[in-house]
Design goal:
Length: about 450
């Protein structure tokens, strides 16, 4: 998305020159003919950059600078000044301006300064986002649990974090495989390098190779420019291949070569590019069984599982439920801006008697829903779905009828689960333990049946 810039100058010729120059470069530009108007616009719209003349009647550019810092502290401010009053620009930079430009100036000079200011803001925002990730989402504290299985996994993550060896994280849908991958990366010596994720199940087969290895301009129809693949994007850092079981056999062979040789070739190129990448793969399917059935390469499987980590389902670590509940309640109460709620003992007992087919993700969804809808300080059984109270599996189908085929039951299960989740396909696929691609194919099949 192009940056939005506010240009402030009471000289219409200068203001229009600056605006037209920036619009030609693809920026969204708003104009203010006075300092008063600029301050009003700052209160109504968000901007990445303000370019203001310092010398204006009534409300000066210095006033615009100070108000911008109050109203939108993340916004950058560049000031325009005459050659004879550069000391005013220096004073503006001391207060908080990012740069200045002196009249008269050319379009090229303006473009260079604007690009530099916006690039600095982008880098600053990315660094802040990375620090927030490190401090919150991907610290060990977000992998909640005190059960023997979780303690063993924490120790394993600590031991393997700095190793370049490939890690294979397996477990049912919703057990937290991506969190483990991120914990490995952000607690390693690669933490300040990229963490790149690719969902292998979400891409059509024809795009997977290009997404992984990149392509050169003209490599195929629609390749209008060269493009870096996920391996290149992750150089120095970690590449997460989520649901690696969905990679087609032809691409499996190329992936194996990359893991062995530590180099790639873009589509349409014979030049090799070395890639120093830590590879983490996840799967909710049994790859060993897929190997036995000839659906997954055995040599790739052994290359992936140098360090295997298997996440237990929630039903096998019920002792962690109270800690998980406390964690999610605190998370969503903070988000909603409400005091921390408590959980009644009856709810804990209800949770301990439930099978949790959707694992931790299902538990988190129920806690989020209860925090949002409940007006009381204590979350009670009435704040949760009936399936939990009865101990039934969530999103179960109607009573099994004699005479239905397996295909009929599968169809009913899929459609009922979709209906229960307001036709959210991604969530439905997660609960059913199938990929998004499989779900799309099934729905297309049912639609075709109805049209016959």
């Amino acid at each position: 998305m192009s940056s939005r810039i506010l240009v402030v100058d009471d000289d219409s010729l200068v203001r229009e020159f600056v605006s037209e120059t920036l619009k030609r470069r693809g920026y969204f530009v708003d104009e203010a003919e006075s300092g008063e108007t600029a301050i009003e616009m700052l209160a109504e719209s968000d901007y990445e950059l303000v370019i203001t003349d310092l010398k204006m009647h009534r409300v000066s550019g210095m006033d615009v600078l100070r108000e911008t810092m109050k109203i939108q502290p993340e916004c950058r401010v560049m000031v325009i000044t005459a050659f004879g009053t550069i000391e005013n620009a220096v004073e503006a930079m001391r207060i908080g301006a990012c740069d200045y430009i002196t009249k008269p100036f050319t379009a090229d000079e303006l473009e260079i300064l604007v690009e530099r200011s916006l690039e600095y803001k982008k880098l600053r925002d990315e660094n802040r986002s990375l620090r927030n990730e490190l401090d919150d989402k991907y610290a060990y504290t977000n992998l909640v649990g005190n059960s023997p299985a979780m303690k063993k996994m924490f120790e394993l993550i600590k031991n393997v974090a700095n190793s370049p060896s490939t890690v294979l994280v397996t477990g049912e849908t919703g057990t937290g495989k991506e969190l483990v991958a991120r914990a490995i990366h952000y607690n390693s010596n690669r933490a300040n390098k990229p963490f790149i994720k690719m969902n292998c199940a979400a891409l059509p087969e024809g795009l997977i190779e290009s997404e992984l290895f990149g392509h050169e301009k003209g490599a195929f129809t629609g390749a209008i420019k060269a493009n870096k693949g996920k391996f290149e994007q992750a150089i120095g850092g970690t590449l997460l291949l989520d649901e690696i079981s969905e990679i087609p056999p032809r691409i499996q062979a190329k992936l194996l070569r990359v893991i062995q040789e530590r180099e790639i070739e873009r589509l349409g190129s014979s030049q090799t590019i070395p890639v120093d990448v830590r590879l983490v793969a996840t799967s909710n399917r049994d790859l060993k069984t897929m190997v036995a059935k000839g659906r997954f390469r055995d040599d790739l499987y052994f290359r992936l599982q140098v360090i295997p980590i298997n996440l237990p389902p929630l039903r096998e670590r019920l002792d962690d439920i109270p800690l998980l509940c406390e964690h999610f309640i605190a998370k969503y109460c903070r988000r909603e801006g409400v005091p921390i709620k408590t959980l009644s003992e009856k709810v804990i007992q209800m949770f301990m008697g439930y099978n949790w087919p959707g694992n931790i993700r299902e538990l988190e969804n129920y806690i989020e829903r209860a925090v949002v809808i409940s007006n009381s300080e204590e979350l009670k059984p009435s704040d949760f779905p009936i399936d939990l109270k009865t101990g039934n599996l969530a999103h179960s189908v109607d009573r099994i009828e004699v005479g239905l085929t397996i295909a009929d039951m599968e169809k009913r299960l899929i459609l009922k689960t979709l209906e229960a989740n307001n036709w959210n396909k991604e969530r439905t696929a997660d609960i059913l333990g199938i990929t998004s691609r499989t779900l799309r194919n099934k729905l297309a099949e049912y639609k075709q049946e109805e049209g016959e």
